[in-house]
Amino acid sequence: MYKLLGKMLDGIEVEKKQIEAIKKASEENIPMIYLPLHRSHLDYILVTFILYLNDLRAPLVAAGNNLMIPFFGALLRGLGAFFIKRKLDPQNGQRDFVYRAVLHTYMEESLKEGHSLEFFIEGGRSRTGKAVLPKAGLLSIVVDTLMSGGIRDAYIIPIAMSYEKLLDGNFVSEQLGKPKQMESFTSAIQAIWRTLHSNFGTVRVDFCQPFSLKEFLYAAEYSYNSPARTLQPCVIKQNQCFFNHDMKVRRRSEYGTEIVSEDHRQLIKDLADYIVYYAFNAYSLMSTNILAFLFLTKHRKGATFSQLVSSLNWLREEITKRNKTVHFYGDSADLITRATSLLGKNLINVDAVQMEWSSGLSNNNMKLVYYKSSVSLPHVLELQYYSNAVLPVFLLESIVVRAAFSSNSEESEKDEVEPVYIQRSCILKQSFELCSILQYEFIFTPPGTSICTVLNATIDELIDNSLLLIKDKPDMIPDELPDLMLDDFFAYGDQSELQQLIMLNMAEDNRNMLQFLQCILAPFVEAYFLVACTLPKLSNVEMEESLFLQEVKSLGLKKIQMGQIFYEECLGLDTLKNALKLFESWKIICCRTQNSQKLYSLQPYYNNAFRLKDIINRIEKYK
Q1: Are 118 and 564 in contact (CB under 8 A)?
Q2: Where does the sequence pass through the membrane (predicted)?
């Protein structure tokens, strides 16, 4: 294994203190639940290999049955894998109670025997490089086993897998709508051959601090009372106690034969969100992540080598200020050279531009090295994959800045922006609405945290950094605040603070930073805007998901040619599908399954051009 990994990778890095924390937790002789964010098929092997090297008991690993191929299936089984169906239920939509019961019993008995488990909380591999909202089915079995008394406790260990270059190739074809190529013996051999003759840089595995599942459930019962804890479409509802359960009651959610309370479902969802949130925020940023992020934000038109070095130094400092792990050291110039080589010529092209100077001297030409990334389809989707790892660092700041610009979009688009003051409560409203729009893209805060409180704190940070300015003497403002559906937050908040008048500081020193923060989420907003603009195609008709997405792509390409859409990466399939989920949750469209195909149609209320236009405008104001 050493020799095999040595041919592919420059190194595998793990912090010693993280391993020590796992060893200390394992002394209590309770199951350890390892939950990696899934990036590569190598994830299965790396976690087991690292634990083995550190004299820790390897877990049983839940692997998809698509990997039951000759030789490789046996290899994974030897590493502790047990294979499960990728889809637990038949294609006709009926629940397979027998299979669910067998899976539940197998995992439950394994836990009772003291085995540790490993499974991927996101389900499959991320196709976009950012965290995928969790699928909590297997996690619910662990919770059920604890709540039924089958085990006295379990330690949960979220894991972040950081690859400098992805071993599995890219997911561009899938993001463009082509069917996934199923794994086979031949494709696996070809992939291994390519892998052994390539350099994939460094892999870093970050094990988060183990936490007690029993203590999490106990804390959840008494602490999750925040009124603004979870996101609903444009509305935050008043929540009562997080869950109320009897630890002796057995709930088998995977059986599908017993009624599971809504509180119990919310418990599982919040636990899963908590795991994904902390794992993704533990992700170590690699050289390729940073360089790709710079090209898609600050240097979409390209940059000289010296400009890239300057920008990289700046970005490293900004990331460090925000207490994020930057996993690269040394000179920025060397880092750029390394990352450029790993990303490859399809993503970054390096040209030597001949510069001519008006001089009487001979040999007066100078070569300027110019780096230009691919910001067009299809390669921009692969570049975005690497870039998306950096998103959480600036996510909330980007939300607030984009919301502030949306409050007066016409003025913000001018070269010379007139001072426009916005009430803090209005910025909060717009920020919250944008979070609601993007709720299927990101987990903005850990469960139990008020999103409004966090957004308000982000506004304070932007004020401290002089990106937002408070008007010294506010104009007269009505005592009644706008109805923002955030009653509890406003009831206990500082009313004078909420009435503050705030403006974007468009001074020359700040303008670049504001534009940088604003463009980070632009591809996602444009994707949702395109899907909204395509909704009229569903008027009085029912359309297969694949056909509807083709209509979205066709409209997107037209708008790109017309200069109305600027970010071609907005046409990535996963984001477009998430937009459909949003509009379904808003009760704008409805979805049914027939012969394994999703069929979409408009809800009767929205089978109306004027009402659809309101939805389009609602998204477009953040564009």
Answers
A1: no
A2: 67-84, 275-296
- Alpha-carbon distance of 524 to 535, in angstroms, equals 17
The domains of the chain are located at: 1-282, 287-389, 392-504, 521-621
Pairing of strands 501-504, 468-470: antiparallel
User: How many CB atoms sit inside 10 A of residue 136's CB?
Assistant: 23
Select from 432, 422, 406, 435 the least CA-distant residue to 484.
432
Pick the CATH number of 1-282 from 3.40.1130, 3.30.420, 1.10.10, 3.40.50: 3.40.1130
Mean pLDDT (the chain, rounded): 85
List residues bridging with 117 in a β-sheet. Answer: 33, 60
Concatenating the DSSP letter of every residue in 441-487 gives: T---S-TTS-HHHHHHHHHHHHHHTTSEEE-SSPPP--SSPP--S-H
CA distance linking residue 68 with residue 560, whole number of Å = 43
pLDDT of residue 56: 96
The neighbour count for residue 4, using CB atoms within 10 Å, is 12
CATH numeric code, 521-621:
1.10.10.10
- We find that the CATH architecture of domain 287-389 is Orthogonal Bundle (1.10)
- Give residue 222's pLDDT band: very low, low, confident or very high (50, 70, 90): low
Q: Is the pLDDT of residue 6 over 70?
A: yes
Count the neighbouring beta carbons within 10 Å of the beta carbon of residue 227.
18
pLDDT digit string (tens) for 534-592?
Answer: 999 999 999 999 999 999 999 999 999 999 999 999 999 999 999 999 999 999 999 99
What confidence score (pLDDT) does residue 504 get?
92
- pLDDT, one tens digit per residue, over 343-371 is 999 999 998 877 665 455 555 566 788 99
The span from the first CA to the last CA of the chain, in angstroms, equals 49
The percentage of residues in the chain with a pLDDT greater than 70, rounded to a whole number, is 82
Query: How many CB atoms neighbour CB 87 within 10 A?
Result: 11
> Which residues, at least 6 apart from 298, have a Cβ–Cβ distance to it below 8 Å?
311, 516
**Rounded-to-integer distance, Cα 149 and Cα 220, Å:** 18
Q: Which strands sit side by side in the sheet containing 303-304, from one edge to the other?
A: 303-304, 366-373, 348-355
Nearest to 400 by CA among 460, 473, 339: 460
